[in-house]
Each structure stands twice: as structure tokens, then as C-alpha cells.
Amino acid sequence: MAEGIRDKVAILGMGCSRFGERWDCSAEDLIVEAFGEALTDANIERDRIEAAWYGLSSDDQGPGKSALSLTSTLRLPNIAATRVENMCATGTEALRGAVYGVASGAYDIALALGVEKLKDTGYGGLPERTKGTFEDLWFPSITAPGSFAQFASAYVAAHGIEMDQLKEAMAHVSWKSHENGAKNPKAHLRSRIDKEKILKAPMIAYPLGLFDCCGVSDGSACAIVTTPAIAEKIGGDGPLVTVKSMQLALSNGSEIGFDEWDGSYALTTRIASQRAYREAGITNPREELDLIEVHDCFSITELVTMEDLGLADVGHGWREVLAGTFDADGQVPCNIDGGLKCFGHPIGATGLRMVYEIYQQLRGKAGERQLDAPKLGLTHNLGGFPNKNVCSISVIGTC
Amino acid sequence: MQQRGIISFGAYVPRRRLARRTICSANSWANPGLAATAHGHKAICSHDEDSLTMAVAAARYALAERPEDNAPDMLVFASTTMPFADRQNAGVIAEAASLSENTCTADMGGSLKAGVGALRMALERPGETLVVAADKRLTRPGGPQELRIGDAAAAIVVGEGDPLAEFVARRAVSVDFTDHYRSSDAQFDYQLEERWARDAGLLHIVPGPIRGLIEDAGIGGENIAHFVAAGLGNRNARTIAKHCGIPEGAVTPDLHAECGDTGTAHPLLLLTKALQSAAPGEFILLLGYGQGAEALLFRATDTIGRASGMTGADAMLADGVEDGNYLRFLSFNGHVSMDWGMRAERDNRTAQSAFFRHRDTVTGCIGGRCTACGTPQFPKSRVCVNPGCRATDSQVSEPFADKPASVKSFTEDWLALSFNPPLMYGNVRFAGGGVAMLEFSDFEPSELAVGAPLAMQFRLKDVDDRRGFRRYCWKAVPPRELSTHTTADKEMEGASHG
After folding, report:
1. Which residues span the domain enclosing A44?
2. Euclidean distance between CA atoms A281 and A195, whole angstroms
3. Most buried of the four, B54, B236, B353, B405, by CB within 10 Å?
4. A153 with A286, same domain?
5. CATH 3.40.47.10 residue ranges in chain B?
6. Active site residues of A
């Protein structure tokens, strides 16, 4: 069995643009903003970057489905660059490409950058997407909230609780994220929201109200990775941060087409997290993880993810949420930066934005929201729909 | 020679019934005279129904009741509101009903008597024929037609062997009398003066062929036990009956209060009612009227009792939901242009090559069943979906349209585009195995629940206004609560207990 990538790659520098309705910015501006911070943080010349992976999921920027809009914007010196897209895991996929490039020995220093300029599409919510020529003929014209909302109806049915109880726990998830996001200058939404307002919000897709849904925003995030040896040599003002594991699991159609899955959880999160824990050497995630950044596209997604990551017993995630286990002062702080809830979800950037928060926390640079000396963090993306999706998990820690 | 006649039938009336008082109160500012007619309901198509989808539903009920040992070798679709002028509508119905590829198909329109005309043609040819008639006629808001006209479909299987009612004789007359008309490029009928239409048209044209038909059969008007004269109004039907010596009590009620006049479908819809109340040996006279008339005479056979178990107008009419939203009805029919937002701007172009390749799935609701592990799956795929199997190219066709199903998970989505929001969809579990994510229709908000029963129905998926195409798919709807007990049943029960 392959030995994996644990501690083979270090993060040399990271950057993250301010997320939000960046009416004044194009994707190009966001790329420059995130890259500039990362380059300064890495303390290298840009010409030392040998390869790049570029996460961009929705609308093409510039000349179509390639990484040309990245290399042209940053005037990268004719290096290898590849565009990746894998639904909401796109940003993390860019990082996986760069990390694997370094871990393989093909490159010493590689760049991962993700960007999405959603607000130019004109949509509230994610834009309409093409489904190809076959599904278009018969598959429902679903939206992201509508598909993820079904976690809730299935969860209630699977665990015999009342929808009102689940809604209260979902409201707690959103309340907590707004509390966290209010402290983050790079977040899109920075206001605290009381639970009553969350519960009384207009319905988007039953049972998800407005505040159960993450925002739609523009943003970019970026990582420069290298070998631990080079990272130590270049030095820096914080502890060495390395990648402990990166795992990806994709559905194969069994959830949507074979009647084993009950709809109340994400099968791929359970599979990818187990692989990630194994690769990272984690045996008790609830005890060992100091913070997590999970894919809270919707409040219910975060809630079931707590169970799928093994941080709460199946059927008890809603109780753990209400007990504050995942609050900023709880046992496993979740989405301490405000999450998708407050950052919105510029798809290509999200995964890297999560890693950025872990990286900042591990180096003690998270400002007002800094946790007490964290050593190990996890990021999680769930792209697609509960019944057919892409899940990526990364574990990042200090050495 | 074997008896030729009606083998089975089916009816479909949309679940939604618009209360006439709703229409009248909305339009009284413009036409206070409408108030006098503000009683009863008209059956209306939902946003995803048209004459073609209703026809498929009625055809499926009719086909479900015919003997297994033979199959229709012809399908005729009669309608004045076919979605396509040049793409055979009957061909779509045949594929949706999973009829053999060798079925001969034909569309027949041009007059409200086309339904009866199609039935007559079927009776006069050998073999088994499925006749389906459906109409969804648009009406101008505020006018009397809007109140009178409803939407429905009916289907009759004609063949030999052991019919419910045998075909006795027929008469026809063609007269280019335009009591109303609709030119090919018009949305609405143009209606002429009612009294002229009645006195110079109806009462002048219809009695002749009826009397002739009765004479041909060597019986008297008093022998007609069921006079099925659709679309004339009860009063006119009674007048004609009187002129022809038919007892007033023989007139089959016109269902104005229950669903309205459903056009081409209406004679066949009323015929299902007559068949379900007929006793062995009784004569049924069916009239089709429009630019002349067609009159068909049937005699109920000893097997007419089987009709009570079939799905006729009564069962459909008993299962409806009152709709009090006139504005929504206008929107369904394009009479008001709602602001559906940016999601309505998407291009619904159909990749016809992909559609043709996948039409068993899309039109036929046919999935696969793995011959290696037995797992039913929708859609059919090259590699079995069962994680414990994964056999390649092991699947045979498995029809899903008639499988009972239930809700596994659901949502009511107010963000997604629907012309009857919220868009409802979810994971669906089929009895006997198989799951799929499908759109729901005909549910009201808060009606859905995990475990709720579902049935499959052929519905409109999208309309491509830019290219004039409409595509159809199968959606999950609440199963119709169809009582098979009819008036005749009750009478028979009464008789046996008396």
C-alpha cells in the first residue's frame, strides 16, 4: 500500500483575498490580491515557482478551459500550469495537484490558486449550470439548496426526531458561523444574527431558510508549497506547517441509484475522512483535531458532516451542535473563520480559503479569532449533491 | 364472425379543478353577467400538462384493462390542440405507453367530432386499435368559453373477441356549419351567436342521422338506454332526444359542473360513464358533433359488468382538488407573464441526437434490470449500480412507469425555476427495487413527506419557446385515489342484497 504524502510537503506561503461582492474587481484583481499576499508570505521570487494548479469551476475567465487566465494574469514564466475543476472541491483539487507535484519530486516549489467571480453572473444563488445532453432531458432542474435540503427530511426520518428540533440545531450552526465571521475582516458577511431571525427567515428550499444557506461571493485564495527541507531553509516566522493527508472520494452512482443509502449522510465524507485519518495517523479525530473547516454550504450539511467525520455519533450530531461542541469555545471549533456561511462560496477558491484559515491558526496569526495553540486542523469540501458528490479532505498540521 | 366493439377504456381528468365562482369573481368587473354561471368546476391542466400528457395517462388506464394476449396494432390520437403540427403526436403517445414499434399511428383533428370519428374508423378496421382523445383548449379570459371549457382525455380500446359493448351501426353527416372555429394560427375559438348555432345548426343537423341510425338498427328511440351527446349542453341534448323519441332519462349527464366541456375528448369521456352504468343488452348511442355529426350505436354485452372495474370519468372526477387561484390559471396558460427571474432565461435547447438515443428512458420510463444480480435501476446503464455486482452490459429493459413508489427524501425549492413553484423533487424508492431522483408534480406545498406513496406520470419537462419544441419526461405524482365502484356497481349490489 502506498505510504501517502504525510509530511512530504510544507506550506511556504498563503494568501487570501477579501471575499464578498467585489463589484470593483475582476477575477484578475482577485488573483493578484491573493497571490501577492502568498508571495510575500513565502518570501521567494515569483520565478522560483515551477508549476501551478489553477482552480476555476464556473464561468471561464479569458480564453476558455485552461490555466491561461492564471499564467497571463501573473505573467508566470512559461511554467507548467493546469486548470482543475471538481465541483466544490475545486480549490482543494488545485492544492492537491501542487502538493502531489512537490511530493513526487517533479517540482521543488509549486503554486495552487483558486478563484471564482460569481457576482458577474447576475444570479442570486449559484448560476444555472449545464447538465449535459442526457440529464437535461429528464432530471429535475435542481438547485444546490434544494438538493442539500433533502439531508434534512431524510435525517429526520432516519433518526426519529422532529423537524423543529433539527431546525433549531441548524439555526445554531448558522448562528455560530455568524459569530465567528463577525471577527474576520476577510469575510463577506460580518454581522451577528440572532437565532430567532434565522428561524423566521424566508424559505429557500424546505426546510432551509435564507440563513441556512451560504452566501454567493467573489474571492481567491492561494498556496505556495515546497519540500519541508526548502521551507526550513527559506525560513519564516512561524512553525513549519505540513500537509498530513489529502484524500478525495467520489460517488459512483450507488447513493442515487442503489437503495442502500438512506439520504441522511454523505457517504463520500465517511470514506474520504477514514482514508485521510489513516494517512495522517489520526486515530481519535475528536480528540486530536484542534479545529476544522467544513463545507457548510448549508447549515444541514455542516450538521451531518460532524457525524460523517466521526466527530459526533450518528444520529446525535444535532445534539452535539446544540451543546456547543463545535462552537469557537467548544471541543472541536468548526468554521472558526465564519465558513462558507460568512465567506460565501466562490467555488474555485473555497477549499484554499479553508486551508488558509488552518494555516493562519497554526501559525498563531488568526487575530481576534485565534485559538489556543492549535496543532492539527482539517478541511472538508462536499461538491455536487448529497446523492452524487465529490468529497475532499485535507489534514494540515505543524511538525 | 367475432363480435367487434369496445374492449376496454380509460379516462384522465386533471386533478386540479378551478372553481367557476373564482373565475366569475375575478372577471365580474368586465362581465357581471357571468355571475349567473358561477357554479361547479372546470378541470384544468397543471403547468406541466397538455393534451398529449393527458392522452398518455388515459391510454395507460385503457391498456391496463385489456386482455394480455394481444396488443393494439394501431393508435389514433384525436385532438384539436395537439402540441405538434408536424411531429406525430400519436407517435409520442405510443412510445410513452410502450406500445410495439410496429404499431401504426395516426393523428386526427380538425373538428370536435374527431374523437368519435377516430373511434368509428377503429371500429371499421380489423385488428385492435387504441383510440385516444384529449383537448386542452385555451380560452380568452373573461368570456363564456372560459367557464364552459375544461381539460381531459379518454381512451378506448377497440377490438374483437369479447367486447364490453358491440358495435351495431353508424351514421354520419358532414355540414360546414361554423358555430365556432379556430384558424390554424389562432389561440382562441371564435364563437358565433348561440341561438343561431342551436336553431339553424344543432337542431337542424343532428336529429336526422340519429333517427336514421335507430332505423338502421331496426329499433325504436325508446330502446336507447344511454344517449351520449357531449358538448351540446344538457338542455339541448334533452331536446334532441325528445325529437328522436329517446327517453329523456337516457341522456348521459354532460359533466358541466364537474369538469366542463373537454372538446374532442368529451364524447369518449361521457361514453366511459355510459359504459359503467349500462346493463347487458342496453343500447348506447354516441354522438360526435362538429361541422356535421357522427353517430355510433353500441349494444352492451353480457360482459359489460367488467366496465365497473375500469377507470372511467366518475372515478377521475371523484378524485380532484379544488383550485381557487385564477391568476395562477392565467399564468399556466400564458395569459399573464409572470416575472420568473433569471433562471427562466436559460436556453432549453434539446440535443435531439441524445434524445433519440435515450428515448426509451425519457419517453418510455424504461430502466434496466441486471441479469447478474437482479437489481432494478433507473436509468439503465452499462455497469450495474449494485456495489456488490458491477457486472457490465448485464441489464435488460425494465419498465418503471407502472411501479408503485414512495418518497425517500424531498424538498420544496423556491429558488429553482418552476412555473408552479416551489419546484418539488427528491429521491424516490420504487417497489421491488430501484431508486432515482425525480421531479414531483401535483403536490401542494407541505403535502410531501418521507414515505408518501407516488405514481409515475408522463409530463411536460420544458418548453423551448425559441425553437418551438417541448420535451416530456416522467414525474412522480400522488397516486389517484380511484374508487372502482360506480353507479352500476351500487345498483348491482343493491339488487343482490334486495
Report:
1. 10-120+218-239
2. 38
3. B54
4. yes
5. 4-332
6. 88, 345
Distance from CA of B474 to the nearest CA of A (A): 7
Domain of A346, CATH number, reads 3.40.47.10
The answer to whether A141 contacts B423, with C-beta atoms less than 8 Å apart, is yes
CB-nearest partner of B343 from A128, A139, A262: A128
* Chain A to chain B Cβ contacts (< 8 Å): 137
**Between B142 and A122, the higher pLDDT residue:** B142
pLDDT in tens, B220-245: 999 999 999 999 999 999 999 999 99
At B475, which helix (H) or strand (E)?
A: strand B469-477
Rounded Cα distance between B196 and A325, Å, is 81
Candidate CATH numbers 3.40.47.10, 3.40.50.2300, 3.90.1300.10, 3.40.50.410; the one for domain B4-332: 3.40.47.10
- A281 and A230 in a common domain: no
Rounded CA-CA distance A133/A139 in Å is 11
Contact A150 B426 (CB under 8 A): yes
Which of A137, A139, A259 faces B429 most closely, judged by CB atoms? Answer: A259
**Interface contact A130, partner B, CB < 8 A:** no
Report which secondary-structure segment, H or E, holds B216: helix B207-216
Give pairs for B442-446: CB < 8 Å, separation 24+: B442/B15, B442/B16, B442/B46, B442/B477, B442/B478, B443/B477, B443/B478, B444/B321, B445/A206, B445/B412, B446/B412
Can you tell me the distance from the alpha carbon of A112 to that of A176, in angstroms, rounded to the nearest whole number? 30
The distance of B117 to chain A (nearest Cα, Å) reads: 35
- Assess whether A309 and A227 both reside in one domain: no
My answer on whether A34 and A160 are in the same domain is no
> What does the pLDDT read at residue B497?
36
Rounded to two decimals, the ipTM of the complex is 0.94
Same domain, A18 and A87: yes
Residue A131 lies in a domain: no
Question: Is the pLDDT assigned to residue A389 strictly greater than 70?
Answer: yes
Q: Calculate how close chain A gets to B401, using CA atoms only, in Å.
A: 14
As a three-state string, the secondary structure of chain A is CCCCCCCCCEEEEEEECCCECCCCCCHHHHHHHHHHHHHHHHCCCHHHCCEEEEECCCCCCCCCCCCHHHHHHHCCCCCEEEEECECECHHHHHHHHHHHHHHCCCCCEEEEEEEEECHHHCCCCCCCCCCHHHHHHHCCCCCHHHHHHHHHHHHHHHHCCCHHHHHHHHHHHHHHHHHHHCCCCCCCCCCCCCHHHHHCCCEEECCEEHHHECCCCEEEEEEEEECHHHHHHHCCCCCCEEEEEEEEEECCCHHHHCCCCCCCCCHHHHHHHHHHHHHHCCCCHHHHCCEEECCCCEHHHHHHHHHHCCCCCCCCHHHHHHHCCCCCCCCCCECCCCHHHHHCCCHHHHHHHHHHHHHHHHCCCCHHHCCCCCCEEEEEEEEEECCEEEEEEEEEEEC
Residue A232 lies in a domain: yes
In a shared domain, residues A264 and A226: no
pLDDT in tens, B76-105: 999 999 999 999 999 999 999 999 999 999
In this predicted structure, the answer to whether residue A126 has a pLDDT above a threshold of 90 is no
Instruction: Label the pairing between strands B423-430 and B435-440.
Output: antiparallel
**How many domains does the structure of chain A reveal?**
2
Q: Distance of CA B327 to CAs B19, B20, B338, B416, B461, Å? A: 12, 13, 10, 21, 22
Q: Is residue A82 part of a domain?
A: yes
Q: Which residue type sits at A107?
A: Y
- Residue A281 is assigned to a structural domain of this protein: yes
pTM listed for this prediction = 0.94
Mean pLDDT of the region A304-316: 98
Q: A362 and A279 share a domain? A: yes
A165 and A112, same domain (yes or no): no
Contact (CB<8Å) B408/A128 = no
